[in-house]
Amino acid sequence: MVPVTGMLADGGGALRNVGALPYGCAVDPCSPADAPRPADGAALSVSGPADFGPAGDPPSALSPSRAADFMTCPLLYRFRVIDRIPEPPTPATARGTLVHAVLERLFDRPAASRTPAAAREMLVPEWERLAEADPELAALFSDDSERSVWLSQASAALDGYFTLEDPRRLEPAERECYVETELDSGLKLRGYIDRLDMTPAGDIRIVDYKTGKVPREAYEASALFQMKFYALVIWRVRGVIPRMLQLMYVADGELLRYAPDEADLRATQRKLEALWQAIERARAAGDWRPRPGKLCDWCRHKALCPEFGGTPPPLPDRAPVTPEDTEVTISVD
């Protein structure tokens, strides 16, 4: 792999991890504070959010995470999308939600006040806002001391973010933006992107925040699948291939960066269409086979898996097929 020396480095397929830097010495500031926002007519957002359903996507939709579910284990995909078995939040998923919320709202502040101290001060108010809106989040912690330890972990993740870039030097073009496009085959892609950065020249960087562990080198391609998905959507909407895909592993203080090219995105499109066909075949046959592996120990549906002595619930009845059901949709989140 050829290392990327900046957002605007030439060539596709470049990849590297970058370690932590002191605050104020951020990696590759994408655009100056006065960089223009996209014109209204070119905005990536659409009229309303996608309806992903209570515990996954509607039967005609697929997100990168659900695509990863199917590739990892078709039965897991079934539990989440077909059966829609509820999955209450965990401290880890709630921490990710909180850190994302703080980083999104941090850019509402004037550039000079986007400091580590300001981000830490936002933690408790943001948590209270989220917990008020979701009783399951509010019930996660049995006492204040347990919540305090958890908040300190979220605070450490935010500190890690500031070792990767200086938000005082950035004005994102879009945050938590909803995008949608349709391929020539009729396949629809849609979903949310954490952040879009744009240079005055129109070069685009897609940014996604991660609060989990940075992947080992052997798993970097899997980690980038979601980002290539987003890049394909942007290419279809804007007619421009993003110059940089950037995963920010804030807790570890590392970046995973990739410069896609047209061949990458065409290959991603072929993979998605083939994956959807496989899902449609599984749905038609009612055949959602488990695929045991290293991730089984972390699966929240392990008790229902026949590989471990469990019994899946009966498949829910399928609604009659209508003309609208023949439209294939994939959504990204």
Task: Describe the protein in words.
The chain has eight helices and seven strands, in the order βααααααβββαββαβ. The protein starts with 13 loop residues before the first strand and ends with a strand. Helix 3 crosses helix 4 and helix 4 packs across helix 6 (144-162). It has 333 residues and is an alpha/beta fold. Residues 1-15, 18-58 and 319-333 have low confidence and may be disordered. Strands 1, 2, 3, 4, 5, 6 and 7 form a seven-stranded mixed β-sheet that branches.
The helix tally amounts to: 8
Helix content estimate:
25-40%
From N to C, what is the helix and strand string?
Answer: EHHHHHHEEEHEEHE
Strand content: 5-15%
Distance between the termini: 28 Å
Please state the overall shape, judged from the principal axes of the Cα atoms: globular
What is the total tally of β strands?
7
Global Rg: 20 Å
Mean pLDDT: 79
In terms of per-residue confidence, which ranges show pLDDT below 50 for 5 or more consecutive residues? 1-15, 18-58, 319-333
**SSE class:** alpha/beta
Q: How would you briefly describe this protein structure?
A:
With 333 residues, the chain is an alpha/beta fold.
Record the SSE blueprint.
Layout: E1 14-18, H1 64-72, H2 74-82, H3 91-106, H4 116-133, H5 135-138, H6 144-162, E2 174-182, E3 188-198, E4 204-210, H7 220-238, E5 244-249, E6 254-259, H8 262-285, E7 329-332
Parallel strand pairs: 3-7, 4-5
Antiparallel strand pairs: 1-6, 2-3, 3-4, 5-6
Summary tags:
disordered C terminus; disordered N terminus; seven-stranded mixed sheet
